[in-house]
Each structure stands twice: as structure tokens, then as C-alpha cells.
């Protein structure tokens, strides 16, 4: 069994984990970063989810390092891809011209940029990356985590990592049970949180759907996959709130819950330069092909792309049959989620209604080369809702809901360590709930939500901070996860450099001011300009 020592251990190499590692490294600390899957980057890469971002992302409301990631992705396209002259001149280049985001792109490009951001520290010997590696056990001494043990997926080799600070940046908060850190799952009760939308009784197994995304293009020929074994089940599956079969163009509109019909037109002859991706104005999902398109062929020189590439993260792939956290059959449920996605693809190829009155699009081709998954799908499931620490401060609905706060805007936190913005966006859940998708006000990220109530040196660095089931709906998105991770990594380094503790930083106004000044110097915005909810 190998033994490694570092100042900071970051378990989980998603967006929060990479941001946490970079922040600690910038502050001069040694870091071990681990990742379970073949690609770092989490929801942006191995989960293949184009970035969900707020409307002002090109102007403000993200950290400088997150902006460097976005700029790096665009620079990568300009450097290596055969863009048209017009696309190359497009300041806010959107390679996929998707309706969901101003920066829809192929997952592997983000992976390349993230690797480049980490490489100087790997070369300098202060960063070690263990991959593909999964935590299996942890040791604690009182209220401090002393080490984490994990196993290499392919070789089975075990490694013990000892660190003074341990950051949980996993997609499910998997270090929390391993370390005995107190946490919550699912829907809290109204008695627990006071939230107007919470149920009377806590529902710990009621969690948002997970999704296994995949990429497709549309080319000549018949690319129909073998009929999945579970296709008959999913073809007949009719959720009570869906308005019909799950596998159809009809589903609830997330914001109004009215049953609406979406269109699907592979390779529309649209002008990608004219796409305006602004979720404040339009969720962008009317045409599912362009909704999360990650390569718009008309942005590249003729012949470079024979087809657009579209990323399928659509309503019908949401798996809400059962939770995948703190259940004995989690692997089985995740396998069923993958079977659902394969069934959706088969339905698209064989039975989906076409505008011309026919059925099926056999020219749809699964692009596993784009997502890196061995079965053609994304490598990892998109997990929207994690275990969440019981924190010194819990962010609740009445802190930021526009329905509650109105024109006052979100609650102001004296201990802000960043900002974020997204609608309270909850997908159908394992408790039988339909969408909740309502306005929120631009919000700050409070340091208190990063502090477990008891454990002193474990910090959440992803979606596992002190939110609720409801507020997780707006804290779970790409730039916010990055900011959470960056703040956690910076906090660990600050405490080591200053000989203090996270709780002391929050409780001492002078130390808090020093830490916030450090964040500001690194390009972390702590407050919003005067913008309103949507």
C-alpha cells in the first residue's frame, strides 16, 4: 500500500475539485487531486453537460479563473479547429451555437484546457493526480480527518493519502459517510428549514433525477443500435405528471408545468451566428437538436463537419425511478439510468415521430468518441443532487427566492466568498415530484455554508455544501460549483499559511477581512452589481 502526504487532499476532480486544487496551489501549497473517471472536469467533461450559466456571464458574476477556463476553451477552438472567418472573429464564440449556453462545446476541449491549467503544478512537483481513483475509507482523530484511502480502478493498487486539509469535491459527497461527517440528503421538512416549498415531513430519499447524457450526429446510412433489453419497459413508461409516455416529444414545461411539445430537426440550416443563448429570455429547449448542440457545422469550414453534434440532456433521459445515494442498489440504479438513455436513442432512431409524418431517424449516430464513454454514452452520470453537509449556516429558499425576497434581492452575507446565479431549477425527483423551476435573485456564497458543524478540517468543494434540496437547485451549476471549490481550496491554504482554522476565519472579523481580500486579489467576486432576478 502506497502512502502519500500533502498539505491539501482534494477528492474528486470535477469542476469544484480542479478549482480547489488550483486555488491551494496558487497559494503555495502541495496538493493531491484524485478523480474516479478517465477525464477531469466532472459535469463539463466526463458527464458531458454544456455549461449552464447566468445571463451576465460574459460581463461579470464568475471568478477570474473560471473566466480563464472559458477563454481557454474559445482560444483552443481558434488555435486548433477549422473555423470559418466569421466564427473566428466572433468575440463570444459559441462553437455549438446551442440555445442553453453561450459556450456549448465538445467535452474533450474543456478537458484539454483544464489539464493545461494544472500542468505547470504537476511539472513543478507540487501537484499529484491519482486517476482513476476512488476513495474507499478514511481515518479520523477526534474532529479531524487524518487520512483517506483509495483504490486505483484498473490496477487495484491502494494508496493512503495523509493531508492537513481534506476537501470533498466528489459528485455525491462520498467522503461525508466515510469520515463520519454529519450530512443530509433529499428533501428537508418545513420544520427543519422554514422553507415555504418544503414538505411537512422530511423525505431523505427524495432526490433529483440523474441523467446519463450522450452525443449524436445525423449522417447518411442506418446507424440503429441493437434494441436495448429494457426498451419495452421504457417505451410504455408513463409518469403521472408527464402528460403521456416518457419517450415522446411531449413533456411538462419546467417553468409552467403545462404539457408542451418540442420539435426535433437534425441539422437545421440555421445561422449559428444568430443564436442568442439567454435563459433569462428563453430556456432554449423548443428545438431539442439545437438546445444543447455542441458543434454547429456551419461554424466550421465546408466539409470539416458532416453534421452538427448534439448533446442529449433532454427531459426523457431523466432517471427518477429511485435514488442512487445511500441505497444498497446504487450500481443497479445507475445501470438502469444508462439503459434508459440507450432506450431513448433507440426510440429516436426507430419510432420518434418525424415532421414528414414518418417515424425514426436511423441516420442518428452515437458519438461515443466525443464523450469518451466505453458504451458510447457519457463516462459518468450527471448527478444533480449530492449529500450535503450539516453546516454552520444552511442556505434556504427564503434567502434567495424571488417570490419571497421580491425587489429586496437575496440575503446579503457578511462572510461572502463568492457569487452565483441560476433559477431554482429542480428536475423531477425520486419522490414523484415534477419540476420546480422558479426565479431566484443573484446571490452570494456564504462561508458558513462551507463549514461542517463539527469536523474541523474537511471542507465541501462542490455541490455538497450547506444548501437544501430546494436551494441546491440553483447552487449546482458549473460556475457556482467552481466558485465553491475555489473558495474551499483558498480557505484551506489561507488557514495553513496563517496558522488558523476555517471556523476562526469566519468568527474573527479581521481574519475574515484578510481572507476576503485574498479572494478578491485572486479575482473572486464577493458581491453583485445591481441586477435583478429572472
UniProtKB/TrEMBL annotation:
InterPro entries: FAD/NAD-bd_sf (IPR036188), NadB (IPR005288). Pfam families: FAD_oxidored (PF12831). This is FAD-dependent oxidoreductase. Gene3D superfamilies: FAD/NAD(P)-binding domain. It comes from the Bacteria. Transmembrane segments: none annotated.
Amino acid at each position: 500500500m502506497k502512502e502519500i502526504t500533502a498539505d491539501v487532499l482534494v477528492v474528486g476532480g470535477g469542476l469544484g475539485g480542479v478549482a480547489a486544487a488550483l486555488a491551494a496551489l496558487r497559494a503555495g501549497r502541495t496538493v493531491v487531486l484524485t478523480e474516479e473517471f478517465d477525464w477531469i472536469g466532472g459535469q463539463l467533461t466526463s458527464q458531458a453537460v454544456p455549461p449552464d450559466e447566468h445571463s451576465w456571464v460574459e460581463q461579470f458574476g464568475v471568478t477570474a479563473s473560471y473566466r480563464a477556463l472559458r477563454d481557454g476553451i474559445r482560444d483552443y477552438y481558434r488555435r486548433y479547429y477549422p473555423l470559418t472567418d466569421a466564427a473566428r472573429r466572433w468575440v463570444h464564440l459559441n462553437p455549438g451555437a446551442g440555445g442553453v449556453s453561450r459556450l456549448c462545446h465538445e467535452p474533450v476541449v474543456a478537458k484539454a484546457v483544464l489539464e493545461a491549467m494544472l500542468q505547470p503544478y504537476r511539472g513543478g512537483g507540487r501537484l499529484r493526480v491519482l486517476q482513476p481513483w476512488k476513495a474507499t475509507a478514511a481515518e479520523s482523530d477526534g474532529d479531524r480527518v487524518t487520512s483517506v484511502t483509495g483504490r486505483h480502478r484498473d490496477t487495484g493498487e491502494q494508496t493512503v493519502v495523509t493531508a492537513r486539509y481534506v476537501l470533498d469535491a466528489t459528485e455525491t459527497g462520498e467522503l461525508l459517510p466515510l469520515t463520519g461527517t454529519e450530512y443530509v440528503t433529499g428533501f428537508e421538512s418545513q420544520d427543519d428549514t422554514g422553507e415555504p416549498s418544503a414538505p411537512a415531513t422530511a423525505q431523505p430519499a427524495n432526490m433529483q433525477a440523474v441523467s446519463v447524457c450522450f452525443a449524436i450526429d445525423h449522417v447518411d446510412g442506418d446507424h440503429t443500435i441493437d434494441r436495448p433489453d429494457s426498451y419495452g419497459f421504457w417505451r410504455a413508461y408513463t409518469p403521472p405528471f408527464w402528460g403521456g409516455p416518457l419517450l415522446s416529444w411531449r413533456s411538462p414545461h419546467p417553468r409552467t408545468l403545462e404539457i408542451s411539445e418540442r420539435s426535433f430537426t437534425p441539422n437545421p440550416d440555421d445561422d449559428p451566428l444568430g443564436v442568442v443563448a439567454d435563459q433569462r429570455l428563453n430556456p432554449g429547449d423548443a428545438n431539442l437538436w439545437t438546445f444543447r448542440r455542441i458543434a454547429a457545422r456551419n461554424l466550421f469550414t465546408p466539409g470539416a463537419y458532416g453534421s452538427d453534434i448534439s448533446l442529449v440532456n433532454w427531459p426523457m433521459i431523466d432517471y427518477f425511478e429511485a435514488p442512487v445515494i445511500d441505497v444498497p442498489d446504487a450500481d443497479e440504479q445507475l445501470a438502469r439510468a444508462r439503459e434508459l438513455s440507450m432506450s431513448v436513442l433507440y426510440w429516436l432512431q426507430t419510432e420518434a415521430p418525424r415532421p414528414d409524418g414518418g417515424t425514426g431517424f436511423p441516420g442518428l449516430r452515437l458519438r461515443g468518441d466525443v464523450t469518451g464513454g466505453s458504451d458510447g454514452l457519457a463516462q459518468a452520470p450527471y448527478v444533480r443532487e449530492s449529500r450535503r453537509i450539516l453546516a454552520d449556516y444552511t442556505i434556504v429558499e427564503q434567502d434567495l427566492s424571488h417570490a419571497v425576497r421580491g425587489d429586496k434581492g437575496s440575503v446579503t452575507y457578511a462572510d461572502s466568498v463568492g457569487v452565483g446565479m441560476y433559477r431554482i431549477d429542480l428536475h423531477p425527483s425520486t419522490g414523484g415530484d415534477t419540476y420546480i423551476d422558479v426565479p431566484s435573485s443573484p446571490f452570494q456564497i456564504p462561508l458558513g455554508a462551507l463549514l461542517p458543524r463539527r469536523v474541523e478540517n474537511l471542507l465541501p468543494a462542490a455541490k455538497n455544501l450547506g444548501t437544501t434540496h430546494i436551494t441546491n437547485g440553483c447552487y449546482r451549476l458549473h460556475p457556482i460549483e467552481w466558485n465553491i471549490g475555489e473558495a474551499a481550496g483558498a480557505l484551506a491554504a489561507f488557514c495553513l499559511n496563517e496558522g488558523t482554522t476555517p471556523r476562526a476565519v469566519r468568527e474573527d472579523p479581521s481574519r475574515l477581512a484578510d481572507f476576503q481580500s485574498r479572494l478578491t486579489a485572486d479575482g473572486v467576486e464577493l458581491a453583485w452589481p445591481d441586477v435583478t432576478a429572472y
